[in-house]
C-alpha cells in the first residue's frame, strides 16, 4: 500500500474510533479506490455502514470481503450476524462453519452458530456449539447463559443451573442469567434460592414484570390475573425453533389433536375459524379442511414465523389475547390449546370470545385442571394456572356459552409426570 494510502487508512481508523462516521466512510472508500480487494478495509467500511444504520450497504461490502480468496474472516463473522438479524439462520451457519474451519477456537462464532441452530430447531447441534463456545471463550458470559438455556431444553436442570451461575460469576449484573437461574432452581424445587435471583433481577431492572410474576408464582404475594404478555412472548420467542420437537417428543403433547377430536362431530364446512394462541400451528392441519378462512393469532412473532412456514393459515397476526378484539367478522369456531394456562381470570377472554362468535358459534379450549372446586384458579410454581371445573362452568354461563362437550385428559408431561387437564367445547346462543 502506498504511503499516502496508509496515511488515509490511519485517518479513517482514527475517525471511526472517535465516532466521526461520515469522515471514516469517506476515507475507507478512498483507500478502496486504490486497493479494492482489501478484506480488512472492506470489513471496516461495513462496520461503519452498520454504525450509520445502513445494513444493506454493510451487507454488500461484507459479501465482497467474504467472497475474496482467501475470505476475510472478520467480514464473514459480521455477515453471519447480519444474516441472523434478517432471519437467514441457515445462511449464517454456513458462514460460521467456514470461520471455525479456519479458526476452530473462535468462541464468538461458535456461540452465534449455536443461537442459529436453536432458531432452526436443531437443539443437539446448538448445545454442541455452546459447549465449544465456553471451551474456547470461557470468559464469555453470554455463551454460558446460552449453554444453560440449551441444557434446560434437554431437562438438564442441574447442569443448566451451573452454567447460569458461571455466567453470573463473570457478569454479576447479568439480569437474564439471574432470571434463567431462578426458573431453573424453581424447577428443582429450590424456591428460596429462586426467589433470591428474581429479587436480584428486580434490583438490576426495577419493575421487571417477568421476575415479579415468577415471584408471585412462588406465593410471595397475591395471585395476579394473568402472566405478563412480555413474559409469555419472551418464553415462546426463545423456544420457537425447538418448540415442536420438545412438546411432541419430550412432553408427549397431544392436546391439539385431542381437542379436535372432541369438537370434530360438531364441525361443518366453510367455517370462519380463529386459532387463538396458535403458536407454530400444531393443530392447524386438523381444522384447515373445514375452514373457509383460518386465522392464527399469537403474542410471539417468532412462533408466527414458524406457523407461516406451514402455509396453512389465511392470515397470521401478532396479538395479545387481553387487548381489544377488532376482527372484521364473527367466527364460527374459536379454538385454543394450552393458552389459557397463562391466564388466571378468564372473564375478559370469555367476554371477548363470546362477542366475536356468530350465533351458534363454538369455542373449544384446554385448561390445566384444579382439583379443588372451592377455588376458581391457582397459579403454580410452574408459572402456569390451573382452573377448577366449577369456575369454567360459571364463566361460560356468565358469557352466554353453553357446554357441549367436556372431558378430563392428560394434556402433556411435566418433569416426567402427567399433567391433568380439561378439554371443553361450548356454544353461543343455545338456551
Task: Describe this structure as you would to a colleague.
The mean pLDDT is 92. Strands 1, 2, 3, 4, 5, 6, 7, 8 and 9 form a 9-stranded mixed β-sheet that branches. Helices cover 54% and strands 16% of the residues. It contains 20 helices and 9 strands. The chain has helices at 3-17, 21-34, 39-51, 55-66, 73-86, 89-102, 107-119, 123-136, 141-153, 157-170, 175-187, 191-204, 209-217, 229-239, 243-250, 255-263, 284-287, 301-308, 347-355, 389-398, and strands at residues 271-276, 291-298, 315-318, 331-336, 357-369, 377-379, 385-387, 401-414, 417-428. It has 431 residues and is of the alpha/beta class. One of its GO terms (biological process) is protein O-linked glycosylation via mannose. One of its GO terms (molecular function) is mannosyltransferase activity.
Amino acid at each position: 500500500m502506498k504511503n499516502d494510502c496508509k496515511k488515509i487508512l490511519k485517518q479513517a481508523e482514527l475517525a471511526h474510533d472517535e465516532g466521526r462516521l461520515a469522515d471514516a466512510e469517506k476515507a475507507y472508500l478512498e483507500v478502496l479506490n486504490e486497493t479494492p480487494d482489501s478484506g480488512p478495509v472492506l470489513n471496516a467500511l461495513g462496520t461503519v455502514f452498520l454504525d450509520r444504520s445502513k445494513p444493506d450497504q454493510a451487507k454488500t461490502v461484507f459479501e465482497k470481503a467474504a467472497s475474496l480468496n482467501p475470505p476475510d474472516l472478520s467480514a464473514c463473522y459480521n455477515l453471519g450476524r447480519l444474516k441472523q438479524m434478517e432471519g437467514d439462520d441457515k445462511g449464517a451457519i454456513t458462514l460460521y462453519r467456514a470461520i471455525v474451519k479456519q479458526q476452530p477456537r473462535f468462541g464468538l462464532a461458535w456461540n452465534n452458530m449455536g443461537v442459529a441452530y436453536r432458531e432452526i430447531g436443531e437443539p443437539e447441534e446448538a448445545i454442541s456449539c455452546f459447549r465449544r463456545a465456553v471451551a474456547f471463550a470461557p470468559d464469555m458470559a453470554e455463551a454460558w447463559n446460552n449453554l444453560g438455556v440449551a441444557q434446560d431444553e434437554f431437562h438438564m436442570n442441574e447442569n443448566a443451573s451451573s452454567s447460569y451461575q458461571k455466567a453470573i460469576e463473570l457478569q454479576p449484573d447479568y439480569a437474564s442469567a439471574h432470571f434463567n437461574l431462578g426458573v431453573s432452581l424453581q424447577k428443582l424445587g429450590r424456591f428460596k434460592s429462586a426467589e433470591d435471583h428474581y429479587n436480584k433481577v428486580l434490583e438490576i431492572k426495577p419493575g421487571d414484570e417477568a421476575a415479579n410474576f415468577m415471584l408471585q408464582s412462588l406465593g410471595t404475594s397475591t395471585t395476579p390475573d394473568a402472566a405478563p404478555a412480555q413474559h409469555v412472548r419472551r418464553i415462546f420467542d426463545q423456544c420457537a425453533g425447538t418448540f415442536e420437537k420438545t412438546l411432541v417428543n419430550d412432553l408427549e403433547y397431544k392436546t391439539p389433536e385431542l381437542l379436535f377430536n372432541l369438537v370434530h362431530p360438531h364441525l361443518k364446512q366453510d367455517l370462519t375459524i380463529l386459532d387463538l394462541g396458535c403458536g407454530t400451528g400444531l393443530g392447524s392441519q386438523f381444522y384447515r379442511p373445514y375452514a373457509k378462512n383460518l386465522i392464527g393469532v399469537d403474542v410471539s412473532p417468532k412462533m408466527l414465523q414458524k406457523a407461516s412456514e406451514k402455509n396453512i393459515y389465511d392470515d397470521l397476526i401478532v396479538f395479545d389475547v387481553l387487548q381489544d378484539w377488532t376482527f372484521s367478522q364473527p367466527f364460527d369456531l374459536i379454538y385454543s390449546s394450552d393458552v389459557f394456562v397463562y391466564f388466571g381470570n378468564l372473564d375478559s377472554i370469555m367476554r371477548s370470545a363470546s362477542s366475536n362468535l356468530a350465533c351458534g358459534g363454538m369455542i373449544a379450549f384446554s385448561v390445566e385442571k384444579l382439583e379443588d372446586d372451592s377455588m376458581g384458579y391457582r397459579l403454580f410454581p410452574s408459572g402456569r394456572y390451573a382452573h377448577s371445573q366449577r369456575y369454567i362452568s360459571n364463566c361460560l354461563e356468565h358469557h352466554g356459552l353453553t357446554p357441549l362437550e367436556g372431558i378430563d385428559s392428560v394434556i402433556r408431561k411435566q418433569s416426567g409426570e402427567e399433567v391433568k387437564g380439561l378439554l371443553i367445547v361450548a356454544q353461543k346462543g343455545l338456551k
